[in-house]
């Protein structure tokens, strides 16, 4: 299978599984990603979704070997990008926190995917590179939406047009990732953070994700109205009562 899906408790791990091809995305992988996202969309018990890659790379972009052999490259591009974009829309809309866990080559669509996660952890051997213009292609996977919002327009232009690589440390400084860890500690740190998030207040976390993601597309007045509705919804939850009770009892809350 081009993707492995592991579910343990409240955590689902989507692992790209084409290590010999550095997990380069092809039609089968994109289609399978959409199927998995549609499946997870129905799971109310899942709180965190991890995106990661098997082997020494997260994802080295699109499968250029497949494009080279394709009789109609434009048709293949459509067959890859349409399910990929549908999957990304679902991941953005779903209440679960999407946690990226990246290492090695994070290029092309792989970089777009990493930028689109709610939070991403990067191993210290990670190298980001858009690489699209090097093959006379434009961005996909939401990269053109996320990158300028994270690093600014001028820097995004430079990275997209000149294909300059970005180290994990620089990505952290620029706000492209939330944390950098030693390569050998990436799996354990990812699991620990996922467990911490999975134990959190689901209603509040979903509201936080929604509010932050929509903030750049709304007026302040619209955002204030949505903040009010979200807080009122949270205040009526069992988790809010538990959080307040635990605060005054000076103990750690146990959310349902």
Summed up:
The chain is an alpha/beta fold and 256 residues long.
Give a description of the structure:
The chain is α/β, with parallel strands linked by helices. It has two domains: 3-198, 2-enoyl-CoA Hydratase, Chain A, domain 1; 202-249, Lyase 2-enoyl-coa Hydratase, Chain  A, domain 2. The protein has eleven helices and ten strands. The protein has helices at 27-41, 64-69, 73-93, 109-116, 143-151, 153-162, 168-174, 186-198, 202-214, 220-235, 238-249, and strands at 3-8, 11-16, 48-53, 59-60, 97-102, 105-107, 119-123, 127-129, 166-167, 179-181. The protein has a six-stranded mixed beta sheet with strand order 1-2-3-5-7-10, with helices on both faces. α4 packs across α5 (143-151) and α5 (143-151) packs across α6 (153-162). The longest helix has 21 residues, at 73-93. The mean pLDDT is 96.
Backbone shape: globular
Low-confidence runs? none
Mean pLDDT: 96
Q: Structural class of the secondary elements?
A: alpha/beta
Structure characteristics:
256 residues, alpha/beta, 2-enoyl-CoA Hydratase, Chain A, domain 1, Lyase 2-enoyl-coa Hydratase, Chain  A, domain 2, 2 domains, 6-stranded mixed beta sheet, 4-stranded mixed beta sheet, 10 strands
